[in-house]
Every structure is written in structure tokens, then in C-alpha cells.
Amino acid sequence: MKILFDQGTPAPLREFLPKHEVLTAFELGWSTLKNGELLAAAESEGFEVFVTTDTNLGYQQNLANRKIAIIVLKTTSWPRIKLSAAKIVNAIDHALDNQFLEIDIPYTN
């Protein structure tokens, strides 16, 4: 599965996704693209899942016609995300086209 990490998504999360191809917006030179442009670029390049920490994305964008699955992590804290990595990987592994999923990341597991 081809996965795109947005700017705020901690890159070390990719270590928990070894069976997937994971790239970041920064690596692709897409850092300056706004959300709508970024999602369009991701879809045109064949990405299947977009992982972001932008909790406003669902309110800012019309996601109805998107093919890409969008997973929103409700924190940018790498220590907290790392503790919830299994939950995040499970969500990515089972992501469906046009799915929008917000994942709560607890302060402790």
C-alpha cells in the first residue's frame, strides 16, 4: 500500500509500516501544497492512504469525492503516537477508499 505522511505526521511512524511504501510530503517537495492540492497530488500519484495530524481537515475540505483514505491522528506527539502504533497500523492496514478516520491518541495506554 502506498502511504503519504503529511507535514505534522512523525516520520518515525514509518518504521512500524515495513510492508508499505511510505513517503512524506516533505520528501516529495510538496511542503508548500495546501490540503486540497496535496490530496489531489497524492491521488494522482497513486497514494492510497493519507496520514495527517490536521484535525481541521474534515471541516476545511470537501472529502466526498476523494478516493484516498484519510487517517487523522489527534496529536503530533511522537511519544504518544509511538505508544498507539499498533492501533494506527491496524487502521492503515484496513483502510478503505474514501474512508475518513480520526484516531484518538491517549496520554497513556
From TrEMBL:
Residues 1-92 form the DUF5615 domain. It comes from Polynucleobacter kasalickyi. This is DUF5615 domain-containing protein. InterPro entries: DUF5615 (IPR041049).
